[in-house]
Design a protein that fits this description.
Layout (H helix, E strand, L loop, with lengths): L1 E5 L7 E5 L4 H4 L7 E6 L5 E5 H17 L7 E5 L4 H13 L2 E4 L6 H11 L3 E5 L2 E3 L2 E3 L1 H9 L7 E5 L13 E3 H6 L3
Parallel strand pairs: 5-6, 5-7, 7-10, 10-11
Antiparallel strand pairs: 1-2, 2-3, 3-4, 8-9
Amino acid sequence: MFAVSDTTASATATTLSAAVTTPAAVSGGSGEPVALRWVGEQGRAEEFTHTQLLDQATRASSMLTELGVCSGDQVAVMLPLVPESVVTTLACGRLDASRVSLPMREPVGALRERIRESGARVLITVDGVLRDGRAYGLKTALDRALMGCPEVEAVLVVHRLGLPVRWVAGRDHWWHEKLAATR
């Protein structure tokens, strides 16, 4: 098992852990183990079995395909340690697309340049993050960087904190709504 922690503030640390088991162990009659366990904002927790994780990854890869992502394409990702980050990585792998991670604390100009250099037409982010017990609108910061990036055709927004976000019709989509509509 491995665990990754984002400890920018001990009161709001995020932990993501994954169990490594073989498919044979899953179907061996012992029940399906948890493949991914996440504990995040204010004690919020989620668990995914292998089947659930693979289902989400399959649906996410279909969602990305619907948005025009093909083999060899770049998908820009500006996410904290949340389950959707793992799902995105798996989905990109299924499509043979590259995940390009964008730093969350990058100044707007530098972030804009990274987005341009990546060549990504699809970007995945979150409505907000907690730092030192305070909520910060990550989508809001990203919108400022996206001014002057017309090559970004779609932004998928993971709903985590329920922060209000500015919406660009036709470009912006809620991750959970788009994922639910994809089979």
